[in-house]
Amino acid sequence: MRGYQFLQNDFFELCQTREIGHTPMLLYIYLRGLFCRFQKPVFTWQDKQTRIHLGISQSTLLRAREYLQTRGMITFVSGKGSQHTEYTIIQVKKD
């Protein structure tokens, strides 16, 4: 089904085990939704839209992205000026 997002039943327990806080978890679910929507391994999206949709500041977005990248859940390249940020969702494996 195009645009459908599936989270494993133990997703939240996995986040707890990996000490992933609420904001990075919310951002990851949001990005997974975009990944499912676009059906591409690499996609771009506006930081402004992300901030508006999630109700977070730019600095919170930056910290959450960095956190997810260090945990091996995403990679990203920040957009410069009017360019969108490029995201890649990495398949999360169980510990």
Question: Can you walk me through this structure?
Answer:
It is built from 4 helices and 3 strands, in the order ααβααββ. The protein has 95 residues and is an alpha+beta fold. Strands 1-3-2 form a 3-stranded antiparallel beta sheet. Helix 2 packs across helix 4. The protein is globular.
Mean pLDDT: 85
- Give the strand order, joined by hyphens, for the main sheet: 1-3-2
Major sheet summary line: 3 strands, antiparallel
Summing up helix and strand content along with how strands pair, one would put the structural category as alpha+beta
Radius of gyration, in Å, reads 13 Å
Helix and strand pattern: HHEHHEE
Termini distance?
A: 28 Å
Tell me the number of helical segments per DSSP (H or I, 4 or more residues long).
Answer: 4
Strand elements, count? 3
Shape: globular
Bin the strand percentage. Answer: 5-15%
Helical proportion, percent range = 40-55%
Uncertain runs are none
Main attributes?
95 residues; alpha+beta; 4 helices
List strands and helices in order, with pairings.
Blueprint: H1 11-17, H2 22-38, E1 42-45, H3 47-54, H4 58-70, E2 74-77, E3 85-89
Quickly describe the structure.
It is built from 4 helices and 3 strands. It has helices spanning 11-17, 22-38, 47-54, 58-70, and strands spanning 42-45, 74-77, 85-89. α2 (22-38) crosses α4.
